[in-house]
């Protein structure tokens, strides 16, 4: 099909003579878009030679980098790892150093989040590939600076998402799997100046869509939500912190962007969980202080909160029947837990729920598997009433 004009809905019969990627319907539309297009068009020629892989599975793709202290976005080469499991390819983006706020800061995969889109809602167009905007998970609360490169390309900045810290836009093939929790991209896409327009449109479209009352309440720095910190083994042994610790977090904390854990959702106590920034990397540096039997970053309570409870799910990298995703089984570190509805959550609530998952539900899952019975025999035991019964017995100990 013919490419459409980047500035309107007419056929793009005029191609940019510089990058040879962007299309316009006329010289007039080309002049109209030049202010933004030139940001990447003029350097596109310098990003034609892909970096060579240094190890098996490594691949570099061209991405677009928005640095908070730079006035303009720019191309970068982003490192990813390719692999294959059960006949399916998967892609794992890396280049964590791009997201560091300081030269010596060590970033890890679980310090980051992504927002994906595959449609330009501003121009009512489906896109040829999927885009991801990757950013620091805690950028609203970790001291990250406002992203100047983004603010210089979006309109009405007072009403848009408050992007802070480094942001990387990258492309992949469309996520073809229909299972929401099993949707890893299979291959990467090199972005071009023509993709820049879709990214800018998304940044302009990505606005707060709640009520103004909720917006004011969310942004009120005086308001705090009561949550719980589950400390890892090293926090407890070395720093003498309790396993379950009361904390207060802002209403805009990134934890509230997470989906509730499967068991908590089923029992109508929807909790959301995020890792504590730099907990894992901190204990990597301090591992000589720890003398425990398990790894210093172990946090079994957090792991068991993430067990799956849908008999149809059976994929080792995501929620599975009676198992937590792989990302929650290793190097968890300390985590923050809160209620999705932002109601107060007490340490005893989380302690009882973790105990129920780890010692009661896991036993039920094991019995069902050993007897080779349908998973549906366990589901009636994962209810609000059953948890309340366990909670009463747990408090009476």
UniProtKB/TrEMBL annotation:
Keywords: Metal-binding, Zinc, Zinc-finger. Residues 5-41 form the MYND-type domain. The keyword ATP-binding does not apply. Gene3D superfamilies: 6.10.140.2220. Coiled coil: none annotated. One of its GO terms (molecular function) is zinc ion binding. InterPro entries: Znf_MYND (IPR002893). The keyword Isomerase does not apply. It comes from the Eukaryota. This is MYND-type domain-containing protein. It comes from Massariosphaeria phaeospora. The lineage of its organism: Eukaryota, Fungi, Dikarya, Ascomycota, Pezizomycotina.
